[in-house]
Amino acid sequence: MKTIAIVTAFPPSAGSLNEYGFHLVNAYIARTDIEKIIVIADKFDGNTPELDLGPKVEVKRVWHFNSPFAGLHILKALKASNADGALYNLQTASFGDSEIPAALGLLTPAISQKLIVPSGVIMHNLVEAVDLSKTNLAKSPIRQKLVAAASYFVTKTMLMSGFMTVTLDSFWDILKEKYKAKNAFMVPHGSFPTASEGSLPKLSDRKDTIVTMGKFGTYKRLERTIGAVQNINLGRIDSHKIKLVIGGSDHPVTPGYLKALAAEHECDSNIVFHGYIAEEDVSDFFTQAKLAIFDYDSTTGSSGVLHQAAIFGTPAAYPMMGDFIDVTEREGLKGFNFKPLDQTALEAAITDCLEDRVTAQSYAENNINVSKGVTMHTVASIQLQLLKKIKTKQFNKIRRAKNSALHIRQNHHSQPAV
Description:
The protein is of the alpha/beta class. The protein folds into two domains: 3-190 and 375-399, Glycogen Phosphorylase B (Rossmann fold), CATH 3.40.50.2000; 197-371, Rossmann fold. It has helices at 18-29, 70-81, 99-106, 108-115, 141-158, 169-177, 223-233, 257-264, 282-287, 304-311, 322-331, 343-355, 357-371, 376-391, 396-399; strands at residues 3-7, 36-42, 57-63, 85-90, 119-123, 163-166, 184-186, 209-216, 243-250, 271-275, 291-293, 316-319, 336-338.
């Protein structure tokens, strides 16, 4: 398999999972057995030039977010690519935040598998694992029921692609028990490459800065986090006040959310709205901070931002619910936990991190070590081997295995043969 197509949101882009797509492509660039990588990506507005990733990589931007025709454009590009295999990097809202374009786009892997090229899916979340009442559908119970019903058909169809990997054990449990899937595998999120551990500043060398990053406005909101920081700062002198740096953008369904918050808090110099974090700035963003906050109303998948915080030695504070329980109990990440939706508990978690320096540093070192277990290079290798199993018609050997999940742990250094 010399040429691989990767269907993904890709930087420069505000599309979900574009950072993951970037690191996945880089992992394939490093492989000597891959001669060509064709990135079939989302279109973006703006004059930002394409990243220069060398002669191996060709980026074809063919679809718009929320376009019902995204799948057709992807299939056309795949057919023209002459790729030996296609890998889709997806989550439920990759193609839109409206139900019809989102669902139509997610049908594409099964169609490309049947008609064009061996195709596999890296799926970062499942509708069944999302509390729809905490999403942009919160005010529409009827739409919640329709989405839940339609998701079964969409997921069932996606499983008609060559294979589907998910990033959490709980997702694989759903595919195994509800869908009786024989071509579903659990492969962890994987850690993004970073500078050597020795070059990461210790927490004691960092200022009292807290960061948070994401697409805000739906189940990721900032009111509690801002309130918590401001309450703590009331008891601190000016030179010791905590700075909160907010990175990211509005969720597509809540345009103007960050702008309104910035206007509300423009008089507070300790609340900084950084905006979009470019790939080359991610390291500086996290290594400036003693803590990264994840104050979510619900969870929708293994957090890429949480894994980024881990590799840069920045401890995290997050609520013990949903997917955060998975990454804590099954992947081995450690953080300062707090009761969901509770600002007072969040304030206590922030205070614990800043005051208990020994525990905070131990969490940082633990998470760095956990992140070394499954790198993006390992993930890329596994996905490629699964694609080859489709190509050589040996995939049924895996489907017939008693335990068809790979179940690679983040703190394991061995790589299974597939």
